[in-house]
Structures are given as C-alpha cells and as structure tokens.
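Might you be able to consider the sequence and fold that I enclose below?
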Amino acid sequence: MKYTLHKSGTRGYYDHGWLKTKHTFSFASYHNPQRIRFGLLRVLNDDIVEAGEGFGTHPHDNMEIVSIPISGALEHKDSMGHVEVIRPGEVQCMSAGSGITHSEYNHSEDEPVNFLQIWVFPKEKNIKPRYDQKYFDPEERKNRIQTVVSPDGIEGALWINQDAVFSLTEIEKGKEVSYETKFPGNGIYVFLIEGRMQIGDTELEARDGIGVESGNKIILRAEEYSYAVIIEIPMR
C-alpha cells in the first residue's frame, strides 16, 4: 500500500481574528504544490469561527461540499431558500452544481464553532443544486463504521454526486475496525478528529490525515479513544 501522511502541524494555518483555519490541501492564500488534492478530494479545511462571526454570502459551482460540525452550531443560508443550523452529530452535504450562493455563520453569540468543510470534485457537472443534512446517532458508530454520505444512499446516508463515500467511526482504546472500499480503484483518506490510532505501521495523532492510494482495505486500531472521518474517493 502507498501511504501519504499529513501531520497536523504541517497544514496551512491562518488566524484572521474571527476565523482560525487550517488547510490540509492548498486553499486561498495557502499554496503547496505537493498538496493540491488527494484524488478527487480537493479541500479539507478545519475551521474555528468566533461567536457571531462567519462567511458572508459567496458563490460555488460544480463542487460537492460536505460539512461536519465538531463543536458548536453552524448556521447555513443559501439561494435555494434553506435556512438551517447544523450541530455535532449532524452532517451537511451540498451539491453546488450549476451554481448557488450561500453563507455560513456561527449560530452562537457566546461560543466558537469548529467544523470540517470538505470539497470533492463532482461526477457530473452543472446538475441542479441540491442541499441536505441529517443527524446520525453516535451510538451507531461505536467500534464500527457509520456511512453518512454516499452516491446511492447506503444505510440512509446523504446523497453525493460522486462515487465517494464518507464514514464516521468512534473506536475505544485497544479496539479496531476495518474499512473496505465500495468502488474499485478508489483511495481512502482518513482524518483523525480526536485521539491516537494506528493504520498499518503509521501512527496518527489528533488532526493528522493519511491517504491510502492502493489496496482496498485498511484496519484502524485505537491506541486511545479515537474519532475519525473516513473518505473513500476516486483517485482520477
């Protein structure tokens, strides 16, 4: 298997006052020619937005955007008429398609919000824009894989316009789970939100990421309680 390790401390980091953001891949003013993307996974941003602040209305097109709150609450408004709040336990998936505008603000006036925003290149361009969000019970990912985004709605997952699968897992210390790809030729990218785990001979600490470009199965072993997002992604 070919592994690509992205340690937490090597990500692009910017402190804008109202926003503290870390970029696994090149984004905005952070450019690293060795980190443009992993297959069709283009953006993995780890954002902390201060109370009452946020991203004003801005456009997107032809991108699949998945948001995963870690703490706090994120308010979303878009040109399709959605006004929603997403909280930990929920996942948001948006197909920008032929074009949308939206805004994202911290819903709280007192506490920061921390969330992952992940962009994936679409399978088909210029589709009708689409938005959805859903709560996924954390008990359903304890020491097992919980599918939250997929192209065919596996196990009630949110739909995505790509042969990509997003899963969450929470693993107790000393236990392990395995993940097998659903689509031939796909790679796997694991982002460790919390904890410490072993994948093959590689140890991951909190906010590390690792891409696995070959092989269709990985085993995640928790050295301590660990919470991770697993992204199965086409490599080309």
Summary: DSSP finds no helices and 20 strands in the chain. The chain has two domains: 12-135, 138-233. The domain at 138-233 is CATH 2.60.120.10 (Jelly Rolls). The radius of gyration is 17 Å.
